[in-house]
Every structure is written in C-alpha cells, then in structure tokens.
C-alpha cells in the first residue's frame, strides 16, 4: 500500500470533502453534523428577529388611541374631562379621566397653533408635558429593521438552496459522488469473468501504489483508460475495484450530469471536478456513460449543441492540462465507442482502451461463484451446468438469475436454492413470466404441441444444431405460446454455411409440422419466419454464401453520425437488378430449407405425433426423457440410411 500524507489519512478531512460536495439529497449533512446545526441556529435567529419586531411595534406604538377632532378636544378641556396630556410637535396625546369600573381612555388629536391652550390647561388643573419625537428612530423601526429581516431571510433561503446538489448557487459545482478509502470495499476478488481486462488495469493500480516505479525509466502512466463493453459487463464494478485495490479516493460522475440548460454550467463542473481531484491526489476520476458527454462534435447534420460541445472542449483542455505524475487517473466507460469524438481517443487523453467482452463459459462460471457466495445453494446445484445454459449472459444477467432463483426458493418457503429453482429462473428470464391463467382451446394446444415438436425433431436430426434441452407448451411472456430450448455445448465464435442452413431448417420446423399434420398453417410461425429470413438475407448480403452472386457483400457499415440518427439503413450501393437477384437468392435458400424439412418430417411423422402426444399430456419435456427420445429418433434415422 502506498504511503499517504496525514491529510489523506484523516477521516475528518474526507468527511468535510463529502459534506462540502454533497447536498442533503446526496447523503449530505446528517443528524449531528455541523452543517445541520448551523441551519437550525439560522432558524432560531429568524424566530428571535420576528419576536423582536413584534415587541418593538407593540412597545413603541402602545395601545391603540382614538383620533378626535381638535374642537372636540377643546370641549373636553373646558368640561374638565381630560386628566393628562403629552404635547408633541405635531400631535397631542391625552388621557381622559376614568369612570368607575371602566379604564382610562386614550385619544390623539392634531396640534394646531393655539396660544391660549397652555393657559386653559393651567386653569383647569390638567397635567401636561412636552415631547420631541425622534424621526430617525421611527424610520429605523418602520423601514430599516423590516428591510434587514427581509435581507436575512433572502440569504437564509439562498443558503438552503445552494446546500443541495441542484441549488441555484451550486450550478457550477460538480455533482460528484466521492468515496473515501474506507468506503470502497470492492476489490479484484469481486470481479470475475474478465481476467484480461483486470490484467490491463493492474498496471494502473501499481502506479497509484508506487508511482516512482513507472517513472524510473522515463515512462509515465496513461492519463486515461476507456472501458468499452456491452451493458452489464462490469465496467463500473471494475473501475471501483481499481480504486479499492489502490486504496485511493474515487470521484464518480455520469456524463449526463455535466450538461444543463444554462450555458457554461457543464464547463464549470468539469473545472470543479478536476480541481477537487488535484487537491486530493492520488485519486481516480470515473466518468460513466461517456458517450453522453463525449459525442463527436459536428456529427448532427441538423445542427450542433453548443453547450455540450463547450463542455467537451473543457474536458479535452483539462485532460491535456494536468501532469501525469500528479497521481490523477481518469477512467471512463461507454458501450458506444463508435460515436466518441476522435480528440478524446488520441494518445495523451484516453491512451488505453480496454475491451470488456461478454464472458465465455468459464467466465460465467466464475461470475456465478462470486454472486452465489451469500446464497444457500442445494447439493444438486451445478454452477458449471448453469453457465452452460446461459450463453450470451453478462455479469448483470447472471446476478439477476441468482437473485430470481433465490426469490423463487423463498416464495416456496425452501431452506436452500435448488437446481430446479435456477431452471425456473432461467425460463422466466428467457421466455417471460409463465401465463398460468391463459386458457387455450384444445385445438390451439394441439397446434402449439405439433409446432414445438417440429422444431425439436429437426434440431435432433440435423448434425449442426445445438442439443434440445427442453420443450414446453406453457404460454410465457406476451405472445409466446410455447418454446423449444436449445443449449450449446460450447461457446461458438464462427458459423459455417452448413450450420447456418441447419439453423434455418430448425426455424422452419414448426411451420412445416403444421403443414404435415393439419395441411394448414397458423400465425404462430411469424417470429420464426422473421428470424429465418434474417439469416438467409445475411448469408447472401454479408457473408458471400450465395452460389449465384458469388464472393460479394452488399452491406456497408453506416457512419457513426448517420447511425445515431437512424439513417444508416437508407444507404445502398447496388442496382435494382442486384436487389432483385438478392431477393431471388434469399427466396431460393428459404424454399430449399423448406423442402428439406418437409421431407424430413414426413419420414418421421410417427415420432412427431409421439412427441406431440407427450407434450399434450405433460406440457413440458426435458432431462433424461428428452435425451432418450432423441437417441431413439437418431437410431431410427441411421437404420433408415439417412445422412445425419
């Protein structure tokens, strides 16, 4: 572990950084934090100020006095009803003599120039005194104090607004999630199935632990590492594992969090993010969904987005501006590297590109072992077999599979997760939720049974197909009335022409089975026909597997700018005559496969009827029973001299 300064080891420093960056909505000030205490004190200041204003108004204003005319006031003086007077420069305030059981009444009148008033007051024995009003004190109470309270409230509200991540005063602050050394508990042991990517990033970990080793011979670590892979392959998990292994702070943001409606906010957040990273080096900056921020400039023919391009320009400047030896590593993740700006991908910015592919069968088994650590597995659970039955699954899919299996077991009040639970979870993920309440007529069930039996028989008879592991006529998902499950014995990366033709025939097996048995066809083969046509057209246009058209391809990968707008499919670089030849060749492949499947099922009609009868009785066939059926079928075909 690399040596670190006392500042980096102080947990209080990390907490202050997190509290400064995060607002209440992002795990900001918690109960007992200084920020929350300050907010509470500000509230008390506001309450005390309001009480003070009310007290001053009540104290200085006194009781409400009746305003009377000066002539009426003179009549009261002459009648001896006035007890005392307070004579001011503009008004006279007086008190009438009280009556039994009633309080003394206060009145106010306007002062006029009356030289005889003082003599009359002395004659009647009325107590009077003079009063000089302070104009500045009244102005202070009536104007300045309320204005001060309003200013205080405004600052208080602005402070509360700027405390959150979405505050008006914090628009230029990077809304970054900060993880300290103790917060990151993910290491390379938690990452499986992507060993090549892990080995690529071990050099980054070694640099963060011991930077002098890489600089000894004059080299320097790459400034940025771009993680490229399909969704769910573990890009974010791998980035956090790098920070966890190196024991450094981890700054995480998504590309979409930089760009706002207000011009200049995105660039300001980029500057703030890199400023924080430099202050707490060594550290890792992780930018998720990089394609939202780094999309190629000028790629939209309808007009660009100046704010997004300005944010990207600022990122390019920041990546060029910091010293590689400072200990700041930039990791970014995307599943669309083809639309990223070329300036981001050049050496000096994202120097290294790490491809994270879908795991193979061994990788899937390793991933299953990681996610199954905290799951009570039954003795019959074989993770290798589960890895075999999940081709094409990524890490997120496998984690979801284990979670679904655990939920199914818990729903049945089981003490452990069995292999049957995993099989049911796989069926649910691949085929959809089982529709137990969907009622089909007996005629429809027969059509579905023969349809699925046709798929299965063709797959059993042809050598270039994957083994059939399960057949079901239980409705699943939105439109699936049944399904035939084939599991590959190994991972495949290439397909031969004969294997593609065999797969084409398997897809047509369901429709042809309906022709053979019912001498009619249904709408249930719509998806099969669509997939079969896609295979045939791809063989002709992309793979050059057409005898008539020869070694030619007729597709062109659209440029990124047009693919992003959905305009790539409109490009065509061949004539109308060639397009007609392509359609004819595709139709020839489809019709050839149709005739072969028709002959195959007519020759084995007895097995087709037998398998359909079992399906109508049990609704689901799999395991040893299906294997035994396949052995009998292939044995009969071999005895008849059919070439398998």
Could you characterize the architecture of this molecule?
The protein has helices spanning 6-9, 11-21, 34-61, 70-79, 117-124, 135-163, 195-209, 211-215, 235-246, 265-279, 306-321, 342-345, 361-371, 383-388, 395-411, 419-431, 442-461, 497-518, 526-541, 560-563, 576-603, 605-618, 623-639; strands spanning 66-67, 82-87, 91-96, 106-110, 127-130, 177-179, 224-229, 249-254, 283-288, 328-334, 350-356, 468-472, 483-486, 620-622. The chain is of the alpha/beta class and 644 residues long. It has five domains: 6-10 and 174-356, Rossmann fold; 23-60 and 138-164; 63-133, Signal recognition particle alu RNA binding heterodimer, srp9/1, CATH 3.30.720.210; 361-431, Helicase, Ruva Protein, domain 3, CATH 1.10.8.60; 442-639, Up-down Bundle (Methane Monooxygenase Hydroxylase, Chain G, domain 1). The protein is elongated. The model is unreliable at 1-39, 162-169 and 560-570 (pLDDT under 50).
- Portion of residues within helices: 40-55%
Number of helices: 23
CATH architecture of the largest domain: Up-down Bundle
Radius of gyration: 41 Å
Instruction: Calculate the terminal CA-CA distance, rounded to whole Å.
Output: 61 Å
* CATH fold naming of the largest domain: Methane Monooxygenase Hydroxylase, Chain G, domain 1
Number of domains: 5
- Estimate the strand proportion: 5-15%
User: What is the highest CATH level, the class of the largest domain?
Assistant: Mainly Alpha
